[in-house]
Specification:
α1 packs antiparallel against α2, α1 runs parallel beside α3 and α2 packs antiparallel against α3. By secondary structure, the chain is mainly alpha-helical.
Length: 113
């Protein structure tokens, strides 16, 4: 049971670090919390069985790193919404240009048979 909790804590911590670096860093909190829970269970079982705790400390370190990165990105990153009027005008202009190009094509000279 101890080994399973240690392995799950490490996997969840690594996943949390990977997600905290990606643009979807808000999803890093879920595996980070799971890693903390598995790490605490593994720490309790290690204390009970008097086993080494080095890998559990590594999982905690990775989890703290992931939580720090995700928190930093969620506080300091801002999402900007662009001006939609310019995009709509460009879209209308490109449609008009396409219609003009189609009207300028001379399709009478093409023999389909």
């Amino acid at each position: 049971m101890r080994k399973l909790c240690v392995i799950l804590a490490l996997i969840a911590a690594i996943l949390a670090v990977i997600l905290s670096v990606l643009p979807v860093s808000n999803f890093a909190f879920i595996p980070a919390i799971a890693s903390l829970i598995f790490g605490l269970v593994a720490m309790y079982l290690s204390n009970k069985q008097e086993k080494p705790k080095h890998t559990i400390k590594l999982a905690f370190l990775l989890t703290i790193l992931a939580l720090g990165l995700a928190t930093y990105k969620s506080i300091y990153s801002t999402s900007e919404v662009g001006d939609t009027e310019e995009l709509e005008q460009k879209e209308i202009q490109s449609e008009e240009d396409a219609i003009e190009e189609l009207n300028d094509l001379d399709l009478d000279d093409i023999d389909l048979e």
